[in-house]
Design a protein that fits this description.
flat; Helix Hairpins; about 0% strand; mainly alpha
Protein backbone atom coordinates (compact mmCIF):
# COMPACT_ATOMS: atom_id res chain seq x y z
CA UNK A 1 0.00 0.00 0.00
CA UNK A 2 1.36 3.43 -0.88
CA UNK A 3 1.02 6.62 1.15
CA UNK A 4 -1.77 8.05 -1.01
CA UNK A 5 -3.86 4.90 -0.71
CA UNK A 6 -3.24 4.74 3.03
CA UNK A 7 -4.27 8.38 3.40
CA UNK A 8 -7.46 7.77 1.41
CA UNK A 9 -8.38 4.82 3.61
CA UNK A 10 -7.64 6.69 6.84
CA UNK A 11 -9.69 9.64 5.55
CA UNK A 12 -12.67 7.38 4.85
CA UNK A 13 -12.61 6.05 8.42
CA UNK A 14 -12.11 9.49 9.97
CA UNK A 15 -14.85 11.04 7.86
CA UNK A 16 -17.32 8.31 8.82
CA UNK A 17 -16.43 8.68 12.51
CA UNK A 18 -16.92 12.46 12.30
CA UNK A 19 -20.32 12.13 10.63
CA UNK A 20 -21.53 9.56 13.17
CA UNK A 21 -20.48 11.72 16.11
CA UNK A 22 -21.29 15.16 14.71
CA UNK A 23 -17.67 16.33 14.67
CA UNK A 24 -16.62 19.23 12.47
CA UNK A 25 -13.13 18.50 11.24
CA UNK A 26 -11.65 21.93 10.66
CA UNK A 27 -8.01 23.03 10.74
CA UNK A 28 -8.09 23.47 14.52
CA UNK A 29 -9.60 20.02 15.05
CA UNK A 30 -6.86 18.36 12.99
CA UNK A 31 -4.13 20.05 15.01
CA UNK A 32 -5.74 19.38 18.39
CA UNK A 33 -6.51 15.76 17.49
CA UNK A 34 -2.87 15.25 16.53
CA UNK A 35 -1.82 16.78 19.85
CA UNK A 36 -4.21 14.47 21.69
CA UNK A 37 -2.75 11.43 19.97
CA UNK A 38 0.84 12.54 20.67
CA UNK A 39 -0.15 12.83 24.33
CA UNK A 40 -1.55 9.30 24.29
CA UNK A 41 1.63 8.06 22.60
CA UNK A 42 3.70 9.76 25.29
CA UNK A 43 1.68 8.08 28.01
CA UNK A 44 1.96 4.67 26.32
CA UNK A 45 5.72 5.15 25.90
CA UNK A 46 6.23 6.13 29.52
CA UNK A 47 4.17 3.20 30.78
CA UNK A 48 6.05 0.80 28.50
CA UNK A 49 9.41 2.21 29.63
CA UNK A 50 8.48 1.85 33.29
CA UNK A 51 8.53 5.61 33.80
CA UNK A 52 4.82 5.81 34.57
CA UNK A 53 2.56 3.37 36.36
CA UNK A 54 1.48 0.52 34.15
CA UNK A 55 -2.07 0.44 35.54
CA UNK A 56 -1.86 -3.33 35.85
CA UNK A 57 -1.26 -3.90 32.15
CA UNK A 58 0.98 -6.73 31.01
CA UNK A 59 4.13 -6.12 28.95
CA UNK A 60 2.23 -7.40 25.92
CA UNK A 61 -0.62 -4.94 26.53
CA UNK A 62 1.83 -2.06 26.98
CA UNK A 63 3.62 -3.00 23.75
CA UNK A 64 0.30 -3.20 21.91
CA UNK A 65 -0.81 0.17 23.27
CA UNK A 66 2.47 1.76 22.17
CA UNK A 67 2.11 0.34 18.64
CA UNK A 68 -1.53 1.45 18.47
CA UNK A 69 -0.70 4.99 19.53
CA UNK A 70 2.06 5.20 16.92
CA UNK A 71 -0.54 4.22 14.32
CA UNK A 72 -2.92 6.88 15.66
CA UNK A 73 -0.26 9.59 15.40
CA UNK A 74 0.66 8.57 11.86
CA UNK A 75 -3.00 8.52 10.84
CA UNK A 76 -3.59 12.00 12.27
CA UNK A 77 -0.50 13.34 10.49
CA UNK A 78 -1.82 11.91 7.22
CA UNK A 79 -5.25 13.46 7.84
CA UNK A 80 -3.82 16.86 8.73
CA UNK A 81 -1.59 16.88 5.65
CA UNK A 82 -4.53 15.96 3.44
CA UNK A 83 -6.69 18.69 4.99
CA UNK A 84 -4.02 21.29 4.23
CA UNK A 85 -3.23 19.96 0.75
CA UNK A 86 0.30 18.86 1.66
CA UNK A 87 1.83 16.07 -0.40
CA UNK A 88 3.74 14.31 2.38
CA UNK A 89 5.60 12.00 0.05
CA UNK A 90 6.98 14.96 -1.90
CA UNK A 91 7.84 16.82 1.30
CA UNK A 92 9.66 13.83 2.80
CA UNK A 93 11.60 13.44 -0.42
CA UNK A 94 12.48 17.16 -0.43
CA UNK A 95 13.33 17.47 3.27
CA UNK A 96 14.69 14.04 4.26
CA UNK A 97 15.62 11.89 1.31
CA UNK A 98 18.04 14.41 -0.17
CA UNK A 99 20.31 13.29 2.69
CA UNK A 100 20.35 9.63 1.70
CA UNK A 101 24.00 8.49 1.90
CA UNK A 102 24.10 7.41 -1.75
CA UNK A 103 22.83 10.84 -2.86
CA UNK A 104 24.96 13.13 -0.72
CA UNK A 105 28.47 13.81 -1.95
CA UNK A 106 30.86 14.84 0.71
CA UNK A 107 34.25 14.33 2.34
CA UNK A 108 33.10 11.21 4.20
CA UNK A 109 32.26 9.47 0.93
CA UNK A 110 35.51 10.27 -0.80
CA UNK A 111 33.75 12.19 -3.57
Amino acid sequence: MDLTQLTDEVEAVSSLYARRHGIERDATWFLLKLQEEVGELTQAFLMRAGQARGKGHSKQQLDESFRSELADVLSQVLLMARHHGVNLQAEVERKWLVWKPDEVAGPHTGQ
